Amino acid sequence: MIYLPVEISLPFLWENEVFKKSDWNSINLFVGPNGSGKTIIAGELFKILQKEGYKPDFLLAERLITETDSSPDGKKHRDVFRLLKADSLLKEKVETVISAMFKKSIYLDEKNGHLIPMVKDIIRNSEYNLRKGECHGLKEIITLLTTIYDSSSKSIILDEPELHLHPQFQFFLINEIRKLAGNPLKEPGKKLFFIITHSPYFIDLRSPEDFRGIVLCHTGGIPTYCESPDLDDFRVMKRFLPRFNTHHKQFFFSDNPVFVEGYTDQQVFTILIDSLSLSFDYPGSCIIDVGGKDELGVFYTICRMLGTGARIITDLDSLFKGKLRDVLCADSRPRLWLNKEGKELYPEILLGRKKITLDSLIQQLEGLLIQIGRAVSKINSRNHEVQDFVQRIGFFYSSRGKVEDLDTFKTVLSQGLELLGDKLVNLLPEKSRKLVPLCIRLKSLILRAGEEARVYILPRGCIEHYYTQTRVEYMPISGKDKLFHQERDYLISQSPKTLREEYPELIGIIQKALD
């Protein structure tokens, strides 16, 4: 880590709050949505770097701001082509890269006191003026390479270096930056980097320590960042990084990221957001699928460490097992709500309890479900729906060992109690029958408490239970892909009015998550 005390106060953005950070990586990333003040923060950081002897360069929209050259607008700019002319070694290094990657070389022609950068196309054996004959991409690449290879600076701020660059060159550039990054005050020739970016390709996280170099900017408060992770969090990040893909990294650039388990959830919620124009009500929102409920727990942990709130929509079985349940129960927000507002809303469950935790309530719910499940497995009914459900419950008892350990068993039982209602409950023995209202009420309480931590559990089960084109009753569900495509075709063909009428529960859930 590099010790550099930074304090930045921007009252028009953060009122009386002050951004403070003293420990920096050799490569630091400022990320966040548009309008979160990243470039303004970078301007203040530039002044601090000057004061602390880090001799900074600031590359802002193809203009290089330095400590040495003044311009009429009061800022200091430097022409990279004059840098190349003055430093033959620097020019040779830049030319080598350009030649290898694009089969083009650069030379500088001086006419009437003006320096004209010329490009020679090696393949076509042609020459032309770079400023007139080249697109922004090559100009940006030359400017970036000249800036990072220039030995006269000790630190560099790059503002959106991804502009005009293909992803492959973004990968190349961050790898070149890694080679040059270090503590310039202790390692001559190394540089301290600060990169403002909206590109996931620059978020190249290879170890848990790299998270400490991320500064997450927000439209509604001071930037946040990851302090030293504890051992458990460190292990979570280490296991997670190899699976951290470009799609996942969207959450670094959104004020309203919502994480879901799979691509079907992501597609359904995204279609609803787009079709109902909810993106105007909740700008900067995005739905990110992560590949399972345990992965949701990992993203929950990552967001907590970075100081930003994760919003999660998940299946009902997440309540009974997995990483997400663990981190949700460890969160203080549900506990605080349960011990205050919860007691007022659910006095029949919570009144008189001294210490209320989400974990203890879930355990109580599991106990009730197991008791009711034993009674359900013994029901004999001529009602087709009831008998089908009883057979499902009986299957768990006959072939799955200890039902107490099966999250699917508890989920299916919970679904059946609400789906069948009195048709099932009236067939239970009196002792079990009395437990059903408490069980349903307790489930409602638990789901409401989870919302305090921005975790929204689908009460019916999973996304398929909200489909309108097919009837899906219990988990697990077979043929999910076929069901999804049928539902998706219907979703994209309907008017906003129809969608509001047919998917009110899903719309309510996504609105709560984005609010």
UniProtKB/TrEMBL annotation:
It comes from Candidatus Gallitreponema excrementavium. Gene3D superfamilies: P-loop containing nucleotide triphosphate hydrolases. InterPro entries: AAA_GajA/Old/RecF-like, Bact_Antivir_Def_Nuclease, P-loop_NTPase, TOPRIM_OLD. Residues 135-203 form the Endonuclease GajA/Old nuclease/RecF-like AAA domain. Pfam families: AAA_15, OLD-like_TOPRIM. Residues 252-317 form the OLD protein-like TOPRIM domain. This is AAA family ATPase.
